[in-house]
Amino acid sequence: MNRDIFIRNLTKDKIEMSPKGRNSNELTPEEFEKCYENFFDMIYEIAATDISSLSGYGEFDENNQAPYETLEDFIRDEIINEKTEGYWKNWTQMFGTTFLEKEYYFEIAEKALKYAPYCEGQRFLANNNTFFCNMIVDDAGKVHPADWGRAGIMDYLMDFAILDLNKPYLLVPEKLWDYAKKRGIQIENFKERFLCMAYFKGIATLRWHASIDDLESCESIVRSMNALEERMSKLS
């Protein structure tokens, strides 16, 4: 089944598959400050989808199934295991030939795995591609994902972590901390779960940008990941 049709059916037509409006990447920090709750509302609306008919974790495969038994399996296969085909075939050859440094890469990967137990059992529909360039803000201010190609079953904090990775100066986890408290939303083990998703997506994204020799983005991602634990420690 076509991915867009699958998502539309799964979400009971709550998701607009061809949104019209302004690309959210064009928002200034001041504009985001005024409407960030709309982004958070969007992620929670996605996460509220009934996925009881689905099993597993991970990005949906060509059959729209989540193929991994545990979240740890998903993380290991995505960022640690060697590949025998596809874009990431023999990806470890990047060490020493690109910006990607082996010691740092596995340091961050191990941090993601360290926090993975906190995310086990946290099974939600996630867009998993909530970079600002992939979202549309309509005339009423509602936010819509425009690309479901990497959607899957995982901790919904992944979608928040991607927002933060894209533009850490917007202080997404800090705003989410206050948003949840204000609305009475309980996010169990928030800091550990956010760190797991952020390190996982961060190192995967770093690998991608290293593969295309995008040094500026690589340096930005490294700065973002290096600041994460201190930022989380300040939330109270």
Write a structural description.
The chain is mainly alpha-helical. The chain has a single domain (3-233), classed as Aminoglycoside phosphotransferase (APH), C-terminal lobe (Aminoglycoside 3'-phosphotransferase, Chain: A, domain 2), CATH 3.90.1200.10. The chain has helices at 3-10, 29-47, 71-79, 102-119, 157-166, 172-183, 190-211, 215-233; strands at residues 22-23, 58-59, 124-126, 135-137, 143-145, 152-154. The strands form two sheets. The protein has a three-stranded antiparallel β-sheet with strand order 1-4-5. Helix 3 runs antiparallel to helix 4, helix 4 packs antiparallel against helix 7 and helix 5 (157-166) crosses helix 7 (190-211). The longest helix has 22 residues, at 190-211. The N and C termini lie far apart (45 Å). 34% of the residues are buried. The model has no long low-confidence stretch (mean pLDDT 96).
Given the C-alpha coordinates, what overall shape results?
Answer: globular
Q: Could you say which structural class the secondary elements and strand pairing correspond to?
A: mainly alpha
Beta-strand proportion: 5-15%
Distance between the ends = 45 Å
Query: Major sheet: order of its strands?
Result: 1-4-5
Can you identify the CATH class?
Alpha Beta
Second-tier CATH architecture? Alpha-Beta Complex
Percent of residues in helices: 40-55%
Number of domains in the coordinates?
A: 1
Q: From N to C, what is the helix and strand string?
A: HEHEHHEEEEHHHH
Mean pLDDT: 96
The total count of strands amounts to 6
Radius of gyration: 17 Å
Low-confidence stretches: none
Q: So how many helices?
A: 8
> Do you know the CATH topology?
Aminoglycoside 3'-phosphotransferase, Chain: A, domain 2
Can you tell me the CATH superfamily? Aminoglycoside phosphotransferase (APH), C-terminal lobe
